[in-house]
Amino acid sequence: MSKITSLQVAKRAGVSQSAVSRVFTPGASASARTAEKVRQAATELGYRPNMMARAMITGKSRIIGLVVAYLDNQFYPLALQLLSKALQEKGYHILVFTASNSQGAAEEVMQELLDYQVDGIITASVGMTNDLTMRCTAAGIPVVMFNRGQEGADISSVTSANLLGGKTVAEYLLACGHQTIAHISGWSGSSTGRDRQTGFCDALNAAGKAPQIIDGMFDRDTAAAATRTLMESATPPDAIFVGNDHMAFAVLDTLRHELGLRVPSDVAVIGYDDVPLAAWPAYNLTTMRQPVNRMVQATVDTLLTRIEDPTTPARRIEIESPLIARGTTKGPIT
Amino acid sequence: MSKITSLQVAKRAGVSQSAVSRVFTPGASASARTAEKVRQAATELGYRPNMMARAMITGKSRIIGLVVAYLDNQFYPLALQLLSKALQEKGYHILVFTASNSQGAAEEVMQELLDYQVDGIITASVGMTNDLTMRCTAAGIPVVMFNRGQEGADISSVTSANLLGGKTVAEYLLACGHQTIAHISGWSGSSTGRDRQTGFCDALNAAGKAPQIIDGMFDRDTAAAATRTLMESATPPDAIFVGNDHMAFAVLDTLRHELGLRVPSDVAVIGYDDVPLAAWPAYNLTTMRQPVNRMVQATVDTLLTRIEDPTTPARRIEIESPLIARGTTKGPIT
DNA sequence: ATGAAAGCGCTAACAA
DNA sequence: TTGTTAGCGCTTTCAT
Fold this sequence. Notes:
CATH superfamily of the largest domain in chain A: Response regulator
Largest sheet of chain A: 6 strands, parallel
CATH topology of the largest domain in chain A: Rossmann fold
Largest interface: A-B, 53 and 53 residues
Shape of chain A: elongated
Radius of gyration of chain A: 25 Å
Oligomer: homodimer
Number of strands of chain A: 12
């Protein structure tokens, strides 16, 4: 039982090979009778069009390259799963490229992406340089950055409203009556980390406060170390805003199990993402939600729109979302 | 800057198109001088061979289909990341197929897998029927089941030594002096779940004990419900072996935060997998390790070996690993 | 070792 | 609507 070609189907159906092709090509013309005969023969033989051959002609592979760095932050596996499912429903599939955040690696990945003739690219939280992403656009391949923005570049991106999110957190903490507020920020090399920090600090400054800030690099160990530094300082904070949930869990672990402090009575903690784990009783973390579902939907829409019509301009989508108050904060003073 | 073909490189290098092809085909013959000229021209033009065209000729796409169901169990994202990285180093990439565990979906996925002419397939924890997996083998596509075995079928699989693992857990719990031991099993429809259970029960039976067993379906909510049932029964257990870490976290949450019990003094808990979260202080879970690294390595080896030489027989690999004692058990009586 | 030529399986432009 | 023809970009005989 080897490969069945369109030619064999054609013979069996008593039509030309191109007739078979047309029956299987969306938006091609074939009479009902022909289509019937062809489909019949095709199912009998178990024929399915060869994607590779089709891709070579049309230039469309129906493959989307997903560039991803680390999957230890629960937010990304979830996104990957939803992304894959949503694209699959549209007839696309995800080809995974893991890129350690090093300079040379990105370069290499970019080439491989082009080799496979992917129809589009989604970068998830990976530090693609402007240059690299621009080159994809130059090569005519639409790129959407998921959970990352890019300053002046003409590249589509989908993020949550991080600036606003930071502000929301600041105002909430203020409303809770906190006096000494600190921030363990997301990696300052990422727009996401920077925006959350900016929104947070601006709102705090407006209230006449200046938070102490340490870059947590989106990393557990770094965040844990930052927590120690913060709490052992001369003026330890009574609230910490952490750049994402993944780090916030490390902060909570350190606070509770290493420093023996109580949350929220000694220190309040707020994260960002609202990954499933944040809702589990062991952490019960107050956090800014990132609506994965809507972000995924927007990403797929944006990408497919650009694939179908390359003249569509790049769009930068920001999705607003609520703060989810749970047990690591005391709640606003009423 | 559109597509560069081998022909354009050939012209520039002053050689034939086939010469260019040979230079880029591993194990083809070309003189040093020709190779030099070709490489020169290629880099100048930014040429890279077109994978699609190559795939069509050789029948090798250098794409591995990964079929996966859910990614909420931390074990799988980790595996996916390592798998992707290991394969990438060998020049392969992963095309993701998400399959809800329904019957019809698997059928559909299987077809798409064939459409893309994947060189091999890895199924991760997804309930492929014997029939389906056999059809892939029939179609000449090597399949490796990751973290699942299959009874009599001639299909490669890589698992940890689940039978032995179950036994190890039982003996450990016995050594800790537990009297009433229960088991919230992994999905009984999976070899992994069954083997752990069998190894566990056999060892317990040998000691004259018969554990109460509830199928946890590898699901958080089901496991939580099972925990309630167990603890509210006439003879609540003093130790619970849970079929994987993902469920064990739900069990711990329920025990501590809902039933107000202390672990391990009221009940001891042991999981299976040793995902990163198990080591975090909030859970600090005693668990059977599954050595992801070695499992991934074995999977990649097995798959690539069969791709390179299809006559290689299927192999069933079981990897032994240790119990990691942490804070949810009291430790053996000395 | 190299070039010419024959396709891989398909879609698309062209006639009929 | 349909069949015929020409490639997509490459690998692989087959001669030389």
